[in-house]
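Narrative progress, year one. The postdoctoral researcher (J.K.) led the effort to move from monomer predictions toward full complexes, under supervision of the PI. The following entry was the first complex the group processed end to end, covering 275 residues in total.
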Amino acid sequence: MKAYFGRRYLVSASHRLHAEALTAEENRAAYGKCNNAHGHGHNYFVEVLVGGAVDPATGMVVDLVALDRTVDERILQRFDHTNLNLDTLFADRVPTTENFCQAIFDLLRDALPAGELEYVRVEETENNFFECWARG
Amino acid sequence: MIFLTRRATFSASHYYWNEAWPAEKNERVFGRCANRNGHGHNYTLEVTVAGEPDAMTGFVVDLKWLKDVMEREVLSAYDHRHLNLETPEFKNTNPTTENIAVAAWKRLEPAINSAGGAKLTRIRVYETPEIFAEYRGEA
Protein backbone atom coordinates (compact mmCIF):
# COMPACT_ATOMS: atom_id res chain seq x y z
CA MET A 1 0.00 0.00 0.00
CA LYS A 2 1.61 3.25 -1.13
CA ALA A 3 0.97 6.36 0.93
CA TYR A 4 2.70 9.68 1.53
CA PHE A 5 4.05 11.26 4.69
CA GLY A 6 4.33 15.03 4.91
CA ARG A 7 6.26 17.22 7.30
CA ARG A 8 6.67 20.97 7.58
CA TYR A 9 9.81 22.76 8.79
CA LEU A 10 10.59 26.40 9.47
CA VAL A 11 13.68 28.05 7.99
CA SER A 12 14.34 31.71 8.74
CA ALA A 13 16.86 33.18 6.34
CA SER A 14 17.79 36.32 4.47
CA HIS A 15 18.46 36.83 0.80
CA ARG A 16 18.92 39.42 -1.88
CA LEU A 17 17.72 38.94 -5.43
CA HIS A 18 20.43 40.29 -7.65
CA ALA A 19 21.72 38.89 -10.94
CA GLU A 20 25.34 39.67 -11.72
CA ALA A 21 24.63 39.66 -15.45
CA LEU A 22 22.17 42.53 -15.14
CA THR A 23 22.91 46.22 -14.63
CA ALA A 24 21.92 47.94 -11.40
CA GLU A 25 18.95 49.44 -13.18
CA GLU A 26 17.91 46.12 -14.72
CA ASN A 27 18.19 44.43 -11.33
CA ARG A 28 15.92 47.02 -9.77
CA ALA A 29 13.45 46.58 -12.59
CA ALA A 30 13.49 42.80 -12.32
CA TYR A 31 13.51 42.39 -8.56
CA GLY A 32 12.11 45.61 -7.10
CA LYS A 33 12.32 45.73 -3.30
CA CYS A 34 13.95 42.30 -3.29
CA ASN A 35 17.05 43.90 -4.83
CA ASN A 36 17.68 46.04 -1.74
CA ALA A 37 21.48 46.00 -1.32
CA HIS A 38 21.40 44.80 2.29
CA GLY A 39 18.94 41.99 1.73
CA HIS A 40 15.83 41.05 3.67
CA GLY A 41 14.48 37.91 5.28
CA HIS A 42 11.62 35.45 5.39
CA ASN A 43 10.21 32.72 7.54
CA TYR A 44 10.20 29.98 4.95
CA PHE A 45 8.02 26.94 5.52
CA VAL A 46 9.56 23.92 3.87
CA GLU A 47 7.07 21.11 3.28
CA VAL A 48 8.48 17.71 2.40
CA LEU A 49 6.29 14.88 1.04
CA VAL A 50 7.74 11.37 1.06
CA GLY A 51 6.04 8.50 -0.79
CA GLY A 52 6.48 4.81 -0.18
CA ALA A 53 5.00 1.56 1.03
CA VAL A 54 3.40 1.60 4.47
CA ASP A 55 5.50 -0.76 6.62
CA PRO A 56 3.01 -3.29 8.05
CA ALA A 57 5.00 -3.59 11.29
CA THR A 58 4.95 0.11 12.12
CA GLY A 59 2.19 1.59 9.96
CA MET A 60 4.67 4.16 8.71
CA VAL A 61 6.06 5.25 5.35
CA VAL A 62 9.10 6.80 6.99
CA ASP A 63 10.20 7.15 10.59
CA LEU A 64 9.48 10.71 11.64
CA VAL A 65 12.53 10.97 13.90
CA ALA A 66 14.86 9.72 11.16
CA LEU A 67 13.31 12.10 8.62
CA ASP A 68 13.67 15.01 11.03
CA ARG A 69 17.32 14.12 11.60
CA THR A 70 18.03 14.07 7.86
CA VAL A 71 16.28 17.37 7.24
CA ASP A 72 17.99 18.93 10.23
CA GLU A 73 21.44 17.82 9.07
CA ARG A 74 20.98 18.59 5.37
CA ILE A 75 18.69 21.62 5.38
CA LEU A 76 18.07 23.30 8.73
CA GLN A 77 21.67 23.37 9.93
CA ARG A 78 22.76 24.63 6.54
CA PHE A 79 20.15 27.32 5.87
CA ASP A 80 18.32 28.30 9.07
CA HIS A 81 19.38 31.73 10.33
CA THR A 82 21.78 32.27 7.46
CA ASN A 83 22.15 34.57 4.48
CA LEU A 84 21.27 32.38 1.48
CA ASN A 85 23.40 34.46 -0.90
CA LEU A 86 26.53 33.38 0.97
CA ASP A 87 25.87 29.65 0.56
CA THR A 88 28.05 28.02 -2.11
CA LEU A 89 24.90 26.76 -3.84
CA PHE A 90 23.99 30.35 -4.61
CA ALA A 91 27.44 31.52 -5.65
CA ASP A 92 26.23 31.65 -9.25
CA ARG A 93 22.46 31.30 -8.82
CA VAL A 94 20.07 33.93 -7.52
CA PRO A 95 18.45 32.65 -4.31
CA THR A 96 14.90 33.06 -5.51
CA THR A 97 12.50 30.72 -3.78
CA GLU A 98 12.29 28.74 -7.03
CA ASN A 99 16.03 28.06 -6.83
CA PHE A 100 15.90 27.52 -3.05
CA CYS A 101 13.14 24.94 -3.52
CA GLN A 102 15.14 23.13 -6.23
CA ALA A 103 18.26 23.19 -4.04
CA ILE A 104 16.42 21.63 -1.08
CA PHE A 105 14.92 18.98 -3.37
CA ASP A 106 18.37 18.09 -4.72
CA LEU A 107 19.91 17.94 -1.23
CA LEU A 108 17.19 15.64 0.11
CA ARG A 109 16.42 13.41 -2.86
CA ASP A 110 19.12 10.83 -2.26
CA ALA A 111 19.42 11.32 1.49
CA LEU A 112 16.02 10.16 2.78
CA PRO A 113 16.03 7.36 5.39
CA ALA A 114 13.12 5.65 3.57
CA GLY A 115 10.71 6.25 0.72
CA GLU A 116 11.05 8.57 -2.24
CA LEU A 117 10.86 12.32 -2.31
CA GLU A 118 7.56 13.27 -3.96
CA TYR A 119 7.85 17.01 -3.68
CA VAL A 120 9.39 19.89 -1.78
CA ARG A 121 7.24 22.96 -1.26
CA VAL A 122 8.74 26.19 -0.02
CA GLU A 123 6.38 28.88 1.22
CA GLU A 124 8.13 32.23 1.15
CA THR A 125 5.22 34.14 2.65
CA GLU A 126 1.61 33.29 3.38
CA ASN A 127 0.78 34.37 -0.16
CA ASN A 128 3.33 32.62 -2.31
CA PHE A 129 4.88 29.20 -2.48
CA PHE A 130 6.84 27.03 -4.89
CA GLU A 131 6.90 23.29 -5.45
CA CYS A 132 9.53 21.01 -6.94
CA TRP A 133 8.13 17.61 -7.93
CA ALA A 134 9.94 14.35 -8.61
CA ARG A 135 7.69 13.85 -11.63
CA GLY A 136 8.16 16.82 -13.91
CA MET B 1 -11.47 18.20 -14.59
CA ILE B 2 -12.00 20.06 -11.34
CA PHE B 3 -10.58 18.96 -7.98
CA LEU B 4 -12.72 19.89 -4.99
CA THR B 5 -11.56 19.55 -1.39
CA ARG B 6 -13.61 19.57 1.77
CA ARG B 7 -11.99 19.87 5.19
CA ALA B 8 -13.27 18.61 8.56
CA THR B 9 -11.73 18.18 11.97
CA PHE B 10 -11.91 15.47 14.57
CA SER B 11 -10.26 14.89 17.92
CA ALA B 12 -9.15 11.41 18.92
CA SER B 13 -6.68 9.52 21.05
CA HIS B 14 -4.34 6.71 20.08
CA TYR B 15 -1.07 4.94 20.81
CA TYR B 16 1.39 2.94 18.70
CA TRP B 17 2.17 -0.66 19.58
CA ASN B 18 3.10 -3.82 17.69
CA GLU B 19 1.93 -6.88 19.64
CA ALA B 20 4.55 -9.04 17.88
CA TRP B 21 7.36 -7.04 19.49
CA PRO B 22 8.58 -6.98 23.09
CA ALA B 23 7.83 -3.85 25.10
CA GLU B 24 11.42 -2.67 24.85
CA LYS B 25 11.33 -2.64 21.06
CA ASN B 26 7.96 -0.89 20.98
CA GLU B 27 9.29 1.82 23.25
CA ARG B 28 12.46 2.20 21.20
CA VAL B 29 10.69 2.39 17.81
CA PHE B 30 7.64 4.40 18.80
CA GLY B 31 9.06 6.52 21.62
CA ARG B 32 6.47 8.53 23.50
CA CYS B 33 3.77 7.32 21.09
CA ALA B 34 4.06 3.88 22.72
CA ASN B 35 2.57 5.08 26.02
CA ARG B 36 -0.27 2.57 26.46
CA ASN B 37 -2.47 5.13 28.20
CA GLY B 38 -2.64 6.92 24.86
CA HIS B 39 -2.43 10.55 23.85
CA GLY B 40 -4.51 12.68 21.50
CA HIS B 41 -4.57 15.04 18.56
CA ASN B 42 -6.81 17.50 16.80
CA TYR B 43 -6.84 15.95 13.34
CA THR B 44 -7.79 17.67 10.12
CA LEU B 45 -9.24 15.49 7.37
CA GLU B 46 -9.08 16.74 3.77
CA VAL B 47 -11.12 14.89 1.17
CA THR B 48 -10.47 15.68 -2.48
CA VAL B 49 -12.81 14.54 -5.24
CA ALA B 50 -12.44 15.12 -8.97
CA GLY B 51 -15.02 15.51 -11.71
CA GLU B 52 -16.66 17.85 -14.18
CA PRO B 53 -19.06 20.54 -12.96
CA ASP B 54 -22.69 19.61 -13.54
CA ALA B 55 -24.13 21.67 -16.42
CA MET B 56 -27.22 22.60 -14.43
CA THR B 57 -25.85 23.28 -10.93
CA GLY B 58 -22.22 24.10 -11.67
CA PHE B 59 -21.24 21.72 -8.85
CA VAL B 60 -18.69 18.92 -9.04
CA VAL B 61 -20.49 17.59 -5.97
CA ASP B 62 -22.84 19.24 -3.51
CA LEU B 63 -20.58 20.29 -0.63
CA LYS B 64 -23.34 19.70 1.91
CA TRP B 65 -23.70 16.15 0.62
CA LEU B 66 -19.94 15.61 0.86
CA LYS B 67 -19.92 17.06 4.38
CA ASP B 68 -22.69 14.64 5.40
CA VAL B 69 -20.85 11.66 3.86
CA MET B 70 -17.66 12.57 5.74
CA GLU B 71 -19.63 12.97 8.97
CA ARG B 72 -21.46 9.65 8.56
CA GLU B 73 -18.57 7.51 7.30
CA VAL B 74 -15.57 8.94 9.20
CA LEU B 75 -16.24 11.53 11.87
CA SER B 76 -19.01 9.58 13.60
CA ALA B 77 -16.51 6.73 14.03
CA TYR B 78 -13.36 8.72 14.87
CA ASP B 79 -14.35 11.98 16.57
CA HIS B 80 -13.86 11.91 20.35
CA ARG B 81 -12.88 8.24 20.25
CA HIS B 82 -9.86 6.19 21.19
CA LEU B 83 -8.85 4.85 17.78
CA ASN B 84 -7.06 1.71 19.05
CA LEU B 85 -9.92 0.69 21.31
CA GLU B 86 -13.03 1.85 19.48
CA THR B 87 -12.51 1.43 15.75
CA PRO B 88 -12.33 -2.09 14.26
CA GLU B 89 -9.72 -1.20 11.60
CA PHE B 90 -7.19 -0.28 14.29
CA LYS B 91 -7.73 -3.27 16.56
CA ASN B 92 -4.56 -4.89 15.17
CA THR B 93 -3.18 -2.04 13.04
CA ASN B 94 -1.40 1.02 14.33
CA PRO B 95 -3.51 4.16 13.91
CA THR B 96 -0.62 6.09 12.37
CA THR B 97 -1.46 9.10 10.25
CA GLU B 98 -0.68 7.00 7.15
CA ASN B 99 -3.07 4.25 8.22
CA ILE B 100 -5.81 6.72 9.16
CA ALA B 101 -5.58 8.19 5.65
CA VAL B 102 -5.89 4.71 4.12
CA ALA B 103 -8.76 3.76 6.45
CA ALA B 104 -10.63 7.00 5.74
CA TRP B 105 -10.30 6.25 2.02
CA LYS B 106 -11.81 2.79 2.52
CA ARG B 107 -14.68 4.29 4.49
CA LEU B 108 -15.39 7.05 1.97
CA GLU B 109 -14.71 5.52 -1.43
CA PRO B 110 -17.87 3.35 -1.72
CA ALA B 111 -20.20 6.19 -0.72
CA ILE B 112 -18.54 8.81 -2.92
CA ASN B 113 -17.82 6.76 -6.04
CA SER B 114 -21.23 5.01 -6.06
CA ALA B 115 -22.98 8.39 -6.13
CA GLY B 116 -22.12 8.61 -9.83
CA GLY B 117 -20.58 12.07 -9.82
CA ALA B 118 -17.06 12.86 -8.76
CA LYS B 119 -14.42 10.27 -7.91
CA LEU B 120 -12.43 10.21 -4.69
CA THR B 121 -8.83 11.14 -5.59
CA ARG B 122 -6.99 12.10 -2.42
CA ILE B 123 -7.23 11.92 1.35
CA ARG B 124 -5.03 14.02 3.58
CA VAL B 125 -4.93 13.64 7.34
CA TYR B 126 -3.13 16.25 9.41
CA GLU B 127 -2.14 15.01 12.85
CA THR B 128 -0.72 18.43 13.70
CA PRO B 129 -0.26 21.45 11.44
CA GLU B 130 3.28 20.17 10.73
CA ILE B 131 2.65 16.44 10.28
CA PHE B 132 0.35 14.87 7.72
CA ALA B 133 -0.16 11.81 5.55
CA GLU B 134 -1.76 11.36 2.18
CA TYR B 135 -3.36 8.43 0.34
CA ARG B 136 -4.36 8.43 -3.32
CA GLY B 137 -5.83 4.94 -3.62
CA GLU B 138 -2.58 3.40 -4.87
CA ALA B 139 -1.84 -0.29 -4.31
